[in-house]
Amino acid sequence: MEAPGSSKKMVATQEEMVEAKVPLAYRDQCAHLLIPLNRCRQAELYLPWKCGSERHSYEKCEYELVMERMLQMQKIREREAQLKSQPIPLLPKTANA
C-alpha cells in the first residue's frame, strides 16, 4: 500500500497501528518506526536519554516526508507562476475575424 503523492510505502498495516494504539494523526509512512519507539518509551519510563536510535530513525523519516512535501509544493507553485506569466487575450478570437 502506498500513500498518494509520496515515494515511501506504508510498511505498518492498519491492524498493527490499531493494536499499537497509534493516534490517527501519526498513521503515516513512518508509523512502522513509531511503534517500536513507543514500546521502547514505555519500557524505559519515557526517560529522554533512552531510545535514542529509535527516535532518530523516526524523526529522520518524518523529516524526509516533510522535505518531500515541500518539494512537491514548490513544483506546484512554479507551475502556477508559469501559467500566470502567460498573456491572457483581451479579445476572444471569432470565426469572422
Automatic annotation (TrEMBL):
<protein>
    <recommendedName>
        <fullName>NADH dehydrogenase [ubiquinone] 1 beta subcomplex subunit 7</fullName>
    </recommendedName>
</protein>
<dbReference type="Pfam" id="PF05676">
    <property type="entry name" value="NDUF_B7"/>
</dbReference>
<keyword id="KW-1015">Disulfide bond</keyword>
<dbReference type="GO" id="GO:0005758">
    <property type="term" value="C:mitochondrial intermembrane space"/>
</dbReference>
<keyword id="KW-0813">Transport</keyword>
<dbReference type="GO" id="GO:0005743">
    <property type="term" value="C:mitochondrial inner membrane"/>
</dbReference>
<comment type="function">
    <text>Accessory subunit of the mitochondrial membrane respiratory chain NADH dehydrogenase (Complex I), that is believed not to be involved in catalysis. Complex I functions in the transfer of electrons from NADH to the respiratory chain. The immediate electron acceptor for the enzyme is believed to be ubiquinone.</text>
</comment>
<comment type="similarity">
    <text>Belongs to the complex I NDUFB7 subunit family.</text>
</comment>
<keyword id="KW-0496">Mitochondrion</keyword>
<keyword id="KW-0679">Respiratory chain</keyword>
<keyword id="KW-0249">Electron transport</keyword>
<dbReference type="InterPro" id="IPR008698">
    <property type="entry name" value="NDUB7"/>
</dbReference>
<keyword id="KW-0999">Mitochondrion inner membrane</keyword>
<keyword id="KW-0472">Membrane</keyword>
